[in-house]
């Protein structure tokens, strides 16, 4: 069931109504005491009480801004839950929140609620009820938090407590803010934690580091004006970079962890509006925000009961992280922060405008990306990053708005390693792996360079560069043992394979697939490798439950080997495909040239 199916999502009234429509299916799963929500039986790595608290708190990210300027008729439900969840004598008490507790994450929405809607969440409470709420929230000031965006949760709680004149720790708030600012890398970019820990650059930059900074600057800026101005200026600078991550239809590059938060991708643009910032024209900001929310709510992301599911473009547990409970997706409600603005705000007065003119390729070294636009296909060539949250989410050669990416399958064997847009290696021809931790990475202009050492005595150097509408890759494998390889192109939706609407071509070192929803191809450069089109394991791709992956295969004996590929995909199934480039020998190995002799990729100077 799609709870917003009848909502055109065009006007402010439409988006206000959407908040209620998204909340209503979840409301049926509130506990008798209204402090916990358990819509289904699956769980996360943290205790059930924290997961059930998620279901109570996360909808507030949308309901609070709605209530700040509009009407919401279920406040009594949240007040009852707030009272019972913070009462140690009640059976639905949320309990203590020690070091690194997931409960601290959910406290942040309550803190923002106190700041923006005290007339609903604070003023109606009795003195005893307020004291219990304050005591429970203040646990965040006595606990250790992960050294990353989590520090903003302490900030949000104390901002809320301070706004209602309740006990809080402003000194520790400032210490947390100082630490968060130490993650700033310049020109609008943060890492989600210390750079020395190789903290990743992903969506936690726009939807956490910048978003919470903008909320702080807006709600508490008068008490901390210099910091507030820094947060505003950094977000304005970042907007000129982040716009490149969005396609014209609203979808954004899928990359990194926590993608089940879906239209939280729009929260940065909503945060700019909330803070009154227009580094881009208001119509462009509104268009970026509205198209992303609209695209997401037009996808099959709901359960039969109308709940937001765990998954990306459709329900799938296979792509989730261990901290994704059934309630986790409601963090997406942060996207609705513009509802805290009055109807006469320039954001709401502006008509949606399309994306500004953007280059066909742009280098973002801070993010380790070369972002490319070709044939209505937005994709990013990507520098691998370390992460404990799934290697496929950070180490593929390319990430695409049209074709998503795939995670590893649950069964071993060829084609099961999530090898789309990746090079997978195996010692036995059965158990394949893709890069996890990389030993070296760098960007050389528009070329992305990485080194992977999966086993002792085995090393792969890779160079990836745009050759629009394609991209090219070169690899040098040095191994003291036999290595089996699989290299995949973009995963393609295989809808249409029950008839004659598809074709596979696997000759002359080229694997090409055409289906109703597009084409995908990979061609060998240098030596012709075996070409095939592999059926992906169901439900491993973020965009489509059933996919194929054009793939090149080869087994290499011990020694040094150079091989390359040209890769292209398009949403147009009839898009032309010609290899259009060749590998030529160099002193170091091989380079890639066009038929006209233009050198596209030459790793000679960086081979060692």
TrEMBL record:
Superkingdom as given in the UniProt entry: Archaea
Listed name of the protein: DUF2264 domain-containing protein
Domain named DUF2264: residues: 11-355, 366-580
Region forming the signal peptide: none
Organism name: Halococcus hamelinensis 100A6
Pfam family of the protein (one): DUF2264_C
InterPro entries: DUF2264_C, DUF2264_N, UCP014753
């Amino acid at each position: 069931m799609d709870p917003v199916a009848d909502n055109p999502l065009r006007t402010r009234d439409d988006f206000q109504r959407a908040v209620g429509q998204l909340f209503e299916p979840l409301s049926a799963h509130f506990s008798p005491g209204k402090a916990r929500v358990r819509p289904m039986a699956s769980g996360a790595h943290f205790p059930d009480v924290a997961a059930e608290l998620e279901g109570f708190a996360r909808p507030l990210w949308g309901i609070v801004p709605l209530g700040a300027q509009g009407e919401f008729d279920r406040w009594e439900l949240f007040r009852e839950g707030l009272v019972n969840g913070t009462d140690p004598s009640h059976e639905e008490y949320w309990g203590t929140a020690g070091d690194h507790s997931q409960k601290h994450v959910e406290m942040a929405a309550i803190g923002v609620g106190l700041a923006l809607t005290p007339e609903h969440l604070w003023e109606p409470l009795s003195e005893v009820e307020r004291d219990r709420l304050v005591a429970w929230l203040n646990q965040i000031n006595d606990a250790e938090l992960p050294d990353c965006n989590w520090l903003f949760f302490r900030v949000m709680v104390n901002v809320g407590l301070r706004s209602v004149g309740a006990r809080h720790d402003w000194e520790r708030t400032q210490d947390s803010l100082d630490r968060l600012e130490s993650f700033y890398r310049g020109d609008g970019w943060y890492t989600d934690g210390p750079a020395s820990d190789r903290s990743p650059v992903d969506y936690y930059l726009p939807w956490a580091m910048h978003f919470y900074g903008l909320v702080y600057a807006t709600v508490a800026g008068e008490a901390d004006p210099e910091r507030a101005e820094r947060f505003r200026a950094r977000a304005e600078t970042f907007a000129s970079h982040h716009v490149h991550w969005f396609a014209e239809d609203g979808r954004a590059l899928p990359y990194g962890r926590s993608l089940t938060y879906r239209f939280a991708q729009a929260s940065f643009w909503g945060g700019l509006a909330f803070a009154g910032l227009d580094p881009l024209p208001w119509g462009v900001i509104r268009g970026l925000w509205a198209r992303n929310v609209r695209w997401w709510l037009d996808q099959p992301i709901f359960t039969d009961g109308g709940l937001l599911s765990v998954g990306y473009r459709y329900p799938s547990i296979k792509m989730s992280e261990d901290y994704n409970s059934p309630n986790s997706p409601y963090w997406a409600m942060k996207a609705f922060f513009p509802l805290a603005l009055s109807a006469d705000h320039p954001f709401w007065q502006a008509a949606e405008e399309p994306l500004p003119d953007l280059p066909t390729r742009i280098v973002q070294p801070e993010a380790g990306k070369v972002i490319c636009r070709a044939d209505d296909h937005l994709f990013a060539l990507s520098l691998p990053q370390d992460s404990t949250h799934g290697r496929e989410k950070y180490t593929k050669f390319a990430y695409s708005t049209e074709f998503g990416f795939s995670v590893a399958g649950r069964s071993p064997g060829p084609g099961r390693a999530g090898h789309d847009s990746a090079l997978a290696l195996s010692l036995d021809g059965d158990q394949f792996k893709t890069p996890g931790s990389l030993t070296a990475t760098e960007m050389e202009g528009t070329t992305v360079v990485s080194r992977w050492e999966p086993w002792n005595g085995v090393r792969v150097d890779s160079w990836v560069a745009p050759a629009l509408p394609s991209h090219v890759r070169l690899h040098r494998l040095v191994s003291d043992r036999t290595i089996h390889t699989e290299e995949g192109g973009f995963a393609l939706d295989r809808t249409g394979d029950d008839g004659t609407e598809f074709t596979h071509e696997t000759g002359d070192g080229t694997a090409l697939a055409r289906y109703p929803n597009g084409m995908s191809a990979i061609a060998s450069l240098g030596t012709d490798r075996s070409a095939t089109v592999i059926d992906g394991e169901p439900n491993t791709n973020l965009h489509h439950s059933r996919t194929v992956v054009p793939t090149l295969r080869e087994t290499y004996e011990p020694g040094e080997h150079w091989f390359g590929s040209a890769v292209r995909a398009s949403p147009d199934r009839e898009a032309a495909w010609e290899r259009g480039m060749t590998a030529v020998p160099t002193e170091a190995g091989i380079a890639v040239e066009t038929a006209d002799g233009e050198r596209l990729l030459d790793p000679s100077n960086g081979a060692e």
